[in-house]
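Possible race condition, two jobs.
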Amino acid sequence: MATQTKTFRLPTLAGSGSSTLAETRKAAEEAVAAASKRLGGTSPSFAFLFVAPRHDLGVALAVAERALAGAAVLGCTTAGEITERGLVRGGIAALVVSASETEVAARATSDVKADPRAAAKRLCEGFGAAMKSAAGRGLSSSTTIVLTDGLNGAGEELVNEIMGATRPFQQVVGGAAGDDGAFKATSVAGGGRAHRDGAAVLHTFSRQPWGVGVDHGLEATTRPMRVTRARGNVVQEIEGRPAFEVYRDYARERGVTLEPASAGPFLIGNELGILVFDEIKRARAPLSVGPDGSLACAAGIPQGAHVAILDGKPASMVAAARQAAEEAQRNLKGARAAAVLLFDCVCRGMILDKEFSREIQAVESVFPGVPVAGLLTYGEIARFKGRLDGWHNTTAVVAAIPA
């Protein structure tokens, strides 16, 4: 008599949690405990922590690693913490995932700005061996989740180097850390430590692909202008004038007096869009003003590019979030979502303000009953099929984890 054997695949389980307690250790314990409840006692595989800068990220990481023994834990500081229950500031949000049919490899590093290529090499060490091991189990889909410093100006280059250090057409998604709009310093955590000028990655290998989507809903509010002098991520002149003076005039027309030392929130709420045939191809966030009136941006803008200052209407931004979620759902290729990560630009939080819950609800409408966690970022990462550029600003990036 022949004996038949069956392999039962355990579903991927996930939960989100948050806390607004004042003490870091207690807040991290509360957020992680709430997120873990939905796992029903199964062992966690990986987790993400999104931590307000008033908390000690290193302490929060230690709490999570102790509570989630054996799981890979990544985290970063934020400009706002997101779960399906809403946006808070000053808190901690957590996503905990148990995925028996997913293999993961986590890495973290510091000193990214000095040499993004070397940093990417460290972050991707062992990727080839991990991919080969996973393929032996039929886990042929891979996605790399990246958390990186939000103020060092090296994010775009780091993402490009990670794409080159993994495999052709590797799917990469994530966000840049924030510091609640202070624009002074951000931190990233992984491997037991929190780093300034740091980055952390989680390489995932699964049977089903993660679903990723991105959209912005922005529009140009100025005529096209030419960048007449720029180097790397620093725009020195627009139309032959110091770049900040262009912004100062723009602000004055809107009844705002702009000074270099306090301009950060206005700049990031009115980002520069790179235009191709009058179409917005990508947005770039100015982060600080130099003594010569230059603008240091979150990513590069080439000299000679045509740009416009961008703004968004709340309804358009909410619709864009829904469209990003729908794109992520399509890219799951028929799989059900176990959880959703949301990487949303801080400027969207500024524009939507108290209406930001509408954006979360738009994502929830596509993924009803699914745990959501994420942050308001200083840059968003989404490189997947049909999207060759990986670094974005002013976007909503949705990453759906397959069940």
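Job #2 (started ~2 s after job #1):
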Amino acid sequence: MNSHWFARTTLCVLLLTLCLPAIAATEAGAVRPEMIVSAQWLAEHLNDPKVVVLHVAQKRSDYEAGHIPGARLLLFEDFMEGEDAELPSPEKLKDTFEKIGVSNDSHVVAYTTAWYPLAGRAYYTLDYLGHGDHTSLLDGGIIEWKAEKRPLETVEPKITRGSFTPHLHPEVRAMMDEVKKISARDGKSELLVDSRPEKRYTDGHIAGAVHLYWRDTVVDEKEKPVFLPPDKLKELFASHGIQPGQKLITYCEIGWQASHNYFIAKYLGYDAAMFDGSIHQWSHMNSLPLVEGKSLR
């Protein structure tokens, strides 16, 4: 064997070995722009048979009062269960999404006329089912759609049942035992993120959790709820002690506000999970201790 060839080959392999982790880290921390679509993009793709628009609402009347043309109604009760808004069984979720026309090759775009984080909850549910890579949120939701004077309709579209196969990602559900362990650690590699208003955080939060109110990630919740640009979101995360490369576990009261911050974390390229039980399970059901004030512990 030629000694020069062997040396060059060995050097190339060594360099590739050294570079791969850095490349992987860069990709893992990269912004995922496809997770957010503008009203303009959606208007141009409303007639695309692969695009399924979901109108997330608590009541049918909210949908019937006016929705984006072609949007299908996704009621709270169809993808959340109980007073603590837990995920239903995969079988029920499969049936729910198939009924409203979601298939394995669908690009889902979700928005809500309810509380803004509920669009994020729809994303979280689909991500849990393995469809997150094919799901986006409408930037600014229906508020921005209306602000741009785009049309609404009140008739329900004819829906052909979809064919949807869940591929569960249980790792996006942080369970109680995992949260207890993370709470007891130093927070360097894994970090709890409390997504509630500051007053709720200071009244009592899980030890080790940093505070990042979900509302701070949008321009204005009521008037212009478009997401902040990625660079501003990264600055926001850094200002709250969140560093690139950390795994983030979001929580709130019952998993709604936390779903929004879960979406933002995924959008920015973080490894993320959500503690669905949140404060309701931690404190109200299990009487576990909370830390008062602004200190982490």
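Residues 3-28 form the longest helix (26 residues).
Logs attached separately.
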